[in-house]
Design brief:
By secondary structure, chain A is of the alpha/beta class. Chain A is 34% helix and 25% strand. Chain B is 54% helix and 11% strand. Chain B has three domains: 120 residues, Rossmann fold (3-Layer(aba) Sandwich); 65 residues; 169 residues, 3-Layer(aba) Sandwich (Rossmann fold), CATH 3.40.50. Classes of the chains: A alpha/beta, B alpha/beta.
């Protein structure tokens, strides 16, 4: 049977999925990127190959996420797509009636508006980090509550405390001050969820028409407190897909499948043992002094970027 | 002899340099903004100032360090912070210990006498009427040609087969235009430029068309907008921006002098949504979007410096305008980030969205007016 691989390299997590010809999820792997996307992708491939000993017949590969370019050259992707399109494709495949996708990941959050099966509008946070997974992570850490239980704490609250949500810095200092006054952790956490949802709806979703059916995906969808806060604010039911945390990767795999490439560029599961390195040099062609990055496979340059003027962009099939 | 310099914005430094030289000044040509420029700008500007302010201030520091003693800038009217910016920049630079003269050229309609006096300060050689005519004719033609070759690059880029061909052709054209000695040279240069673009290998298809509106500096200076036009062109999109320097000069200097409203079309088109001016180019952003819609464009991208009030006003109206005219809409807020990937992600998604819309409407093969213009 033919399989399709989807790789989503985000700032916080790197996800790999395999889907079969019917779009059914076969395997999903979730790894923390930890600032090293190359290692994360290789580690993911290694774990995948352990299952079923890498005997899958991969017919196509899609890459997405902020590290899609890098992931694309390492894995050998046939399709490299932005994460907005990938998330929309995955949401639509799961549920054809979806009209709104709320997505909150590690470092960014987005809203995608879908009408009659096509994306008609979207927005992605630009200048604000409040309301992303990293921030929740950080706060859970500070309160010494495992992130997995963070959301359930919020559900226990009967008297949410109001927390300033406009900016992560305001939110944090507000939380600290209220904590010092003796408010219960659960009430503060619920207040934080409400603040983040308020900020999301007021900032990213501003002016967008949020119609049901509403799907909530991305790593933060695991947080029951966030789901409840969205339901309260929107007065609508929020649906969380089964594989909410790997939807981007599923979208990439589906896009690879739809592309119907005749011969995949896939480098094979063995790439986890190959030696990938990245090094950089400073171009002195102009006062920009761009840091140009070489991606090397077994010592050979396979891609290069980082220059503003594209002077170094062209790579002749590894000969450089 | 005065050592004159001015802010850097797109290719406008080419005719300005020539003009100021012909007027008998030594010209310190401002460098293209780089990360060094923003470092100066963010260090000395108030934190809340907008991105154009910081880039221009950084440029001033660079040219003063290079020996300039006179700075020329355009002023502004209306409720946009930029109108006050020259005065503020002058103060900041003086406090840093630089000695220089700041010459602000205000729009002629309201400050005609001031303007004449200020221009006089920049004329430091004896010129006859004939000289004036020939100098301004040359600078004007240079400006118009620079705009023309840039437009040609926008038309050619989405069709090019080899990525980068159009950008290379464009750079060559700019070099030729900058190197012109006499007015008669332009004829040859214009022909050669056209030939350069003709020589680019092209595909035959009807590209998506996106109109770009927004604040003038981030619209016109590619460094400040992360080379968005080039990025879109390479994604196969025909891009047109609502403002070019030659048109801007006509509407803001010539028309203003005779108290005629500049960019009248844009203002008229904005009327149903926008009855008052809101400063900057907020109203023009709305009006120009309507014009793009009527010309059969697929989408609008609004560029604004982070916290730019006029563009914030426009941003609250544009989604409605675009919806009524069936256009896709994306707004981009620019500040000192120089990483391009976030922008690329949004642009790719926007292009996917517009493509899907076209496919659905079954208009993929319909050639619109722009496609005809390009043929």
């Amino acid at each position: 049977m033919a399989y399709y691989l989807g790789v989503d390299v985000g700032s916080v997590s790197t996800n790999l999925v395999l889907i079969d010809e019917d779009g059914v999820l076969e395997e999903a792997i979730y790894i923390r990127t930890q600032g090293n996307p190359i290692r994360a992708v290789q580690e993911g491939m290694k774990q995948l190959s352990f299952r079923n000993k890498g005997k899958w017949d991969v017919k196509g590969v899609g890459a997405t996420g902020s590290g899609r370019q890098l992931a694309g050259v390492i894995v050998g992707a046939d399709v490299v797509k932005n994460e907005i399109t990938a998330h929309a494709v995955a949401a639509l495949r799961e549920d054809t009636d979806v009209q709104t996708v709320l997505e909150i990941g590690g470092q960014d959050s987005k809203i995608i508006i879908i009408r009659d099966g096509i994306v008609t509008d979207f927005a992605m946070n630009t200048v604000c980090a409040a309301g992303t997974g990293s921030f929740l992570d950080q706060q859970a850490n500070r309160l010494n509550i495992p992130i997995e239980e963070f959301g359930n704490y919020a559900l226990k609250s009967k008297n949410p405390v109001r927390i300033a949500g406009r900016c992560a810095v305001f939110a944090e200092s507000d939380m600290v001050h209220k904590q010092q006054l003796g408010y219960k952790a659960q009430d503060i956490i619920r207040g934080l969820c409400e603040a983040l949802v308020r900020n999301y709806l007021n900032n990213i979703a501003k002016g967008k028409e949020i119609r049901p059916r509403i799907v909530f995906q991305g790593g933060v969808a695991a947080n029951a407190g966030m789901k409840a806060a969205f339901e309260d604010a929107l007065e609508e039911e929020i649906h969380i897909p089964q594989h909410y945390d790997v939807m981007g990767a599923i979208g990439a795999a589906l896009l690879a499948k739809d592309a119907e490439v005749s011969k995949t560029q896939f480098k094979g599961f063995g790439l986890s043992d190959m030696n990938f390195t990245a090094d950089s040099f400073e171009c002195s062609g102009c006062p920009n002094h761009c840091e140009v990055i070489n991606i090397k496979m077994e010592g050979k340059v396979i891609a290069r970027w980082g220059d503003r003027c594209n002077k170094w962009k062209i790579v002749d099939n590894g000969v450089a | 002899m005065k050592k004159v310099s001015f802010p850097y914005m797109g290719t406008s430094y080419i005719p300005f340099e020539r003009l100021l030289k012909d007027f008998g000044n030594k010209v310190i040509v401002p460098p293209r903004p780089t990360e060094e420029t923003i470092s100066y700008g963010t260090k000395y500007a108030p934190e809340f100032a907008c991105y154009p302010f910081k880039i221009v201030l950084g440029t001033y520091v660079q040219v003063l360090e290079a020996g300039a003693d006179t700075l020329v800038s355009s002023g502004g009217v209306g409720p946009c912070r930029a109108g006050l910016y020259t005065a503020l920049q002058e103060k900041i630079l003086q406090e840093l210990g630089y000695e220089f003269e700041m010459i602000t050229l205000e729009p002629p309609g309201r400050h005609f006498r001031d303007l004449l006096q200020n221009i006089k300060k920049l004329i430091n050689t004896r010129l006859t009427l004939r000289d004036y005519i020939s100098i301004s004719r040359f600078a004007w033609k240079q400006l118009v040609l620079l705009d023309k070759v840039e437009r040609l690059s926008h038309k050619t880029r989405p069709l090019e087969i080899n990525k980068g061909d159009s950008t290379r052709a464009y750079k060559k054209c700019v070099e030729m235009i900058a190197g012109a000695e006499k007015y008669v040279d332009f004829k040859e240069i214009e022909r050669e430029s056209e030939l350069l673009y003709e020589a680019v290998e092209k595909r035959d298809y009807d590209p998506l068309k996106i109109g770009i509106v927004g604040e003038i500096y981030v619209l016109m200076e590619p460094f400040s907008n992360l080379e968005i036009e080039e990025m879109l062109g390479e994604l196969g999109v025909y891009v047109e921006r609502s403002m070019f320097l030659s048109e801007y000069t006509i509407s803001n200097a010539v028309m203003d002098l005779f108290h005629m409203a500049g960019e009248r079309d844009a203002k008229k088109m904005a009327a149903p949504y926008f009855k008052e001016m809101c400063g900057g180019h907020g109203r023009e952003s709305v009006g120009n979007s309507v014009i793009f819609a009527k010309r059969g464009f697929d989408g609008i991208i609004q560029l604004s410096p982070f916290t730019c009030i006029p563009e914030i006003v426009a941003k609250s109206i544009l989604p409605k305008v675009c919806k009524e005219h069936g256009l896709g809409f994306l707004t981009i807020s620019l500040d000192e980030q120089t990483g391009k990937e976030g922008l690329r992600t949004r642009l790719e998604a926007f292009v996917d969205l517009l493509m899907a819309k076209r496919k659905k409407a079954g208009t993929l093969t319909v050639k619109s007016q722009v496609a005809k213009e390009m043929a």
